[in-house]
Amino acid sequence: MNPPQNRPATDNSPGINWKTLPWALMVLGCLLLASQFLNSGQGQQTALSWYANSGLQQLEWNNYLSWLRFNGNARQAKTLDEQARSGNPHAYASALLSPQFIEDSNKRAGDFWSAQQIEQWRTLRDQVPQQLAQSPLYRWGLPAADPRPSRFFTAPFTGGALWLTLLALFLLGLAALRLERQLGPGRVVVIWLASSLLAGAGYLIMVTPGQAPLHGLAPSIVGLLAATSALSRTPVVFSLPTGKTKRTTRTLPAWSLVLLPITLLAALTLSQPPWVANLSAGLLAGLGGALLAILIQPRQNAAPETRQFGPSLSPDQQQALARGWDALGKLEGASAERHFQDALKTDPQLFDALTGLFTAQQMRQATEEDLQQTATALFNHNANDTGQATQIVHHWKQYKQRTAEPLPEATLWQLVITLTHAREFQHAEQLAMQHAANPAEKEHCKTALQILREALLREGLNHRAKALPD
After folding, report:
1. Residues 6+ positions from 45 with CB-CB distance below 8 Å
2. What whole-number distance in Å separates Cα of residue 386 and Cα of residue 137?
3. What are phi and psi of 10, to 5 degrees?
4. HSE-up of residue 119 (Cα within 13 Å, Cβ side)
5. Is this structure's pTM higher than 0.85?
6. N or C of the chain: less Cβ packing under 10 Å?
7. Is the dihedral of CA 236, 294, 391, 420 positive or negative?
8. CA separation (Å) from 264 to 129, 155, 179, 282, 377?
């Protein structure tokens, strides 16, 4: 009897593993995106418009320029005067936010103002905090005239150019999972805070009077992206759809992640003035983020190598192995394959013969079926020896590049164990996550995950151990 045509198809695709999501960076990204719309630093700032139109500028601006010259800052006075004449309202922020000028003006107000003007000036000055509260760029951003410590960390939450914000969040999304799985949420937050602090320092080093305050998330995100590239040790693997149901896998070299911070740094520098100060902010945040990531990354201490010696080889096996390796040295793949197969006749699990046979078949471009058969036997080897595990991992990477033939599931779970013994934890986690949703080999799956989880816990990588499926 045929099934009804309108019966919905069963979806066997694995669901989302919520434990593995980069929650710290996701929350940070949401907050930064919300601040772009709720606390934008773009457009006309209320405080600057009010300063120019309320009469405060007419009262004190020329006095402020004279005060700068009197205190040995003639060059700064000239720069601010030129900027104000050219229509740059940020020049007025230097006077608006200068506590020393306000203090001196209170002491010497009678020298250049009448009693009525003094009263007017003080009334207007009392309104300044209210006006600043309505100007996000000067309330939350980092102006050179008033670099309060808290503003190093509030500047990223002052929205910059929308396209730059979206670009920064997109690039962060590409790196978030890799970065947070390597470091954990706590270390990621530390790097972001340090990047924000260094971005502010880099900005203040190069900014000149009368320029816009530092604002926007891009400089601190450069630090996170640089941290990702600094820790990149494995190729970047991603899949692309090639049809309705098929996907193809592509691989990029590990160094390609360095393009992420470079792209954002270039966009930050060219997006808006001050260009030099923005470049300095991004550079210092990037260098600091990369260095800090290297310093605080979880350490993987070298495990002691314990070699287990098997039973002694027979004279025939020794002779076959010697001839096989000699043939490999002469690049005679077919001859080497024959000798290694002779050695395997008496012991199909002989490790040296399996590795030699795998190498010989690669050399002579064996069929995918023959290579898969040898790879399955080799990868099923229980490599408790760290040296053997490292060799198997090397051959497994060669196999993935050479052929797309799938391996039996039991072999894949043994590979997870071997990768763990070789301290290739990232590869082990990726392989485990790919096959843990609906495993057919449940006992193999349980054993492999337990070994991997215990190894991660020994290394202090608790967040990665907890992310493994139960």
Report:
1. 89, 135, 136, 137, 138
2. 57
3. -75, 130
4. 3
5. no
6. N
7. negative
8. 35, 17, 17, 9, 47
CA angle (422 as vertex; 453, 429 as ends), nearest 5: 40
* Cα–Cα dist 426/213, whole Å: 41
Angle among Cα 231, 234, 238 to the nearest 5 degrees reads: 115
Q: Provide the phi-psi class of 309: left if phi over 0, else alpha when psi is between -120 and 50, else beta.
A: beta
| Mean pLDDT for the stretch of residues 185-192 | 94
Query: Are the CB atoms for 202 and 222 separated by under 8 Å?
Result: no
Q: How far is CA 441 from CA 151, 227, 277, 342, 408, in A?
A: 55, 38, 58, 32, 10
pLDDT in tens, 317-339: 888 888 888 887 778 888 888 88
**Token pair of 420, please?**
């763990």
| Residues near 422 by beta carbon (within 8 Å), at least 6 away in sequence | 383, 386, 389, 390, 392, 393
Which residues fall within 8 angstroms of residue 467, CB to CB, at 6 or more apart?
17, 19, 20, 181, 429
Give exposure, 359-380, as e/b (b: 16+ Cβ within 10 Å).
bbbbbeebeeeebbebbbbbbb
Would you tell me how many other CB atoms lie within 10 Å of the CB of residue 391?
A: 21
Position 202 scores a pLDDT of 96
Q: Rounded to an integer, what distance in angstroms lies between the CA atom of residue 203 and that of residue 152?
A: 10
Residue 333: CB atoms within 10 A of its CB come to 18
Give pLDDT, residue 259. 94
pLDDT band, very low/low/confident/very high, at 130 (cuts 50, 70, 90): very high
Q: Sorting pLDDT into bands at 50, 70 and 90, what band is 6?
A: very low
The Cα–Cα gap between 441 and 417 comes to: 14
Range 316-467: architecture per CATH: Alpha Horseshoe (1.25)
What residue segments make up the domains of the chain, in order of their start?
46-134, 155-296, 316-467
Q: Answer for the pair 26, 179: CB distance below 8 angstroms, yes or no.
A: no
Angle subtended by helix axes 386-402 and 368-379, to nearest 10: 160
